[in-house]
């Protein structure tokens, strides 16, 4: 049995249709019946999420080095499309802190127009990935890799907020690389602005205190409002949004295509793939979090298509990359959302805030936004998960450490690829250790592949015949060691009965190893019997020329079989 995307089971023989995989959850919810009570609940949840998303969207845009309204464009346009077309009932789309590093680097290399082109191309890539059903495979990224790159991004966010939080005066643009950034900030330390430091520390402290003692209150918005009032009333000499970026626009801009010339597309394509990869991982992780909180099941490939459409639309309106956001999605669930209408309402409320409160938002101090991002960066470092990895598995902790190091000092895409590769190698090694050979008579210690124990055969009285059992998957990671042991056994006996009843799978490398064993046994004039093979195994073995009369097949009970 397998899932159909809603948590129900369907027979494996009936593959899900295109409609099953790509129907938006908004359509599903409306089909189920959507009344006024659900609409009121979704409106309230949407307002709650919008209050949380407002300061976050501004802060993320400022941290990326672009004007703050671009964060709101992404939250409004992208958030609306994610909820309208997505495969999750509760997903909230918008700009995410995880993208800050990639966006800042892209703007530095290609400018704002290059960023918008990369965002648009990432949307095309995400749509293609969803239609090709790649969303099914994102879940195979190892947990230590996700912990590693999110912690690395958290550290980079913290480092990026040192200058605005301290109000430092730096000559020239601030370097993106951590190793280049820290010496420059150290030299600028004498220029620390005490009011800016107080605003940043007070904002971060108030948010953390609210989370502990008043978790249902919109702590980020309260902290931003109080910080702005303090700067206005006390006339504090700190940078504000308007002093650095100018007035915020009152509304959305007209959509515009970025430069689509071939040279420009090829230049930003690596950044587009990085946006798409991180967006896919982040959005499906967020949807999985919502599933865990609600007991529902999201449609991963439908979600990727929606994320792609959201990024294309965000780029056309000048917005940042869009993805599913874990914190806002969790807030949506806790606020009592019933379905995607809450996400649509969240986008609508943000648009109202931009239309009516744009001039007021322009006077938010940058130090207060830095305080918000300090909390985000600190939260992204999953301290409990890291401690568990360090205690329970040296191999998994090594995967985490490599991913973290490459994220901080090299590149996020490199970090994910390297972490995944290292995690795969670690998995192969562990799987190979579960494959063993047991038999009677017992092998000498030097012949043992791993853990060997006696196995009592029916033919124990025949000194020329031995029975050995292979336990575990006979795949490329274990084939060499198992093959070496079986070769040494076959050299000394007239007949080797190899029991494969406890082998769930034989891959091409395992089949090639058995083909070599059969060929050598035939040359020596010794017999080889394969016991307990399934039809699927025999089909694989036949492809490598393993069959009678060189090899005899037996059923699991020792009777002759075809």
From TrEMBL:
Keyword match rRNA-binding: no
Origin superkingdom: Bacteria
Domain annotation STAS: ranges: 455-562
PROSITE patterns: STAS (PS50801)
PANTHER family recorded: SULFATE TRANSPORTER
Subcellular location: Membrane
Protein name: SulP family inorganic anion transporter
Record bears the keyword Glycoprotein: no
Lineage per the UniProt record: Bacteria, Pseudomonadati, Pseudomonadota, Alphaproteobacteria, Maricaulales
CDD domains named among the record's database cross-references: STAS_SulP_like_sulfate_transporter
One Pfam family named in its UniProt record: STAS
Residues annotated as transmembrane: 43-64, 71-92, 98-131, 143-164, 184-209, 221-245, 265-290, 337-356, 362-381, 388-406
InterPro entries, A to Z: SLC26A/SulP_dom, SLC26A/SulP_fam, STAS_dom, STAS_dom_sf
Keywords for the protein's UniProt record, in alphabetical order: Membrane, Transmembrane, Transmembrane helix
Membrane topology field: Multi-pass membrane protein
């Amino acid at each position: 049995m397998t899932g159909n995307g809603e948590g129900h089971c369907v027979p494996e023989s009936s593959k899900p249709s295109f409609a099953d995989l790509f129907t938006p959850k908004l359509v599903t919810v409306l089909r189920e019946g959507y009344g006024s009570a659900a609409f009121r609940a979704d409106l309230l949840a949407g307002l709650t999420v919008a209050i949380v998303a407002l300061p976050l969207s501004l802060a993320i845009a400022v941290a990326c080095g672009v004007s703050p309204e671009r964060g709101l464009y992404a939250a409004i346009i992208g958030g609306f499309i994610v909820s309208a077309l997505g495969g999750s009932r509760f997903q909230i789309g918008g700009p995410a802190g995880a993208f800050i590093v990639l966006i800042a680097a892209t703007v530095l290399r290609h400018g704002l127009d290059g960023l918008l082109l990369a965002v648009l191309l990432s949307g095309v890539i995400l749509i293609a990935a969803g239609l090709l059903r790649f969303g099914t495979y994102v879940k195979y990224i190892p947990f230590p890799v996700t912990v590693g790159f999110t912690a690395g991004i958290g550290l980079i966010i913290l480092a990026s907020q040192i200058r605005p939080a301290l109000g430092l005066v730096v000559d020239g643009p601030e370097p993106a690389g951590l190793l280049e950034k820290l010496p420059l900030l150290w030299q600028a330390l004498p220029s620390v602005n005490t009011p800016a430091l107080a605003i940043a520390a007070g904002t971060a402290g108030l948010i953390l205190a609210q989370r502990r003692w008043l978790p249902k209150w919109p702590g980020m918005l309260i902290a931003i409002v109080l910080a702005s009032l303090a700067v206005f009333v006390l006339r504090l000499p700190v940078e504000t949004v308007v002093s650095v970026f100018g007035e915020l626009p009152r509304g959305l801009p007209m959509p515009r295509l970025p430069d689509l010339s071939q040279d420009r597309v090829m230049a930003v394509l690596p950044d587009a793939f990085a946006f798409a990869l991180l967006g896919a991982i982040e959005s499906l992780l967020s949807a999985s979090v919502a599933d865990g909180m609600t007991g529902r099941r999201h449609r991963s490939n439908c979600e990727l298509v929606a994320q792609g459409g959201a990024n294309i639309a965000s780029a056309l309106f000048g917005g940042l990359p869009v993805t599913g956001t874990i914190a806002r999605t969790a807030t949506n669930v806790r606020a009592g959302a019933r379905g995607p209408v809450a996400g649509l309402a969240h986008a609508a409320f943000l648009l109202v805030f931009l239309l009516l409160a744009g001039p007021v938002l322009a006077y938010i101090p940058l130090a207060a936004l830095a305080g918000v991002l300090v909390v985000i960066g600190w939260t992204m470092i999953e301290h409990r998960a890291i401690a568990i990895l360090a205690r329970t598995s040296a191999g998994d902790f090594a995967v985490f450490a490599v991913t973290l190091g490459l994220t901080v000092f090299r590149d996020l895409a490199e970090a994910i690829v390297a972490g995944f590769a290292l995690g795969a190698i670690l998995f192969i090694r562990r799987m190979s250790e579960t494959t063993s050979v047991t038999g009677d008579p017992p092998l000498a210690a030097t012949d043992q592949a791993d853990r060997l124990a006696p196995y009592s055969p029916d033919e124990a009285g025949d000194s020329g015949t031995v029975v050995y059992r292979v336990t575990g998957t006979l795949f490329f990671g274990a084939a060499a060691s198992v093959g070496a042991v079986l070769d040494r056994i076959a050299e000394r006996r007239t007949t080797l009965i190899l029991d494969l009843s406890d082998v769930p799978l034989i891959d091409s490398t395992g089949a090639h190893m058995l083909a070599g064993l059969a060929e050598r046994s035939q040359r020596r004039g010794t017999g080889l019997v394969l016991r307990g093979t399934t039809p699927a195994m025999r089909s694989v073995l036949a492809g490598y020329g393993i069959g009678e009369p060189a090899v005899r097949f037996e059923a699991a009970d020792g009777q002759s079989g075809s």
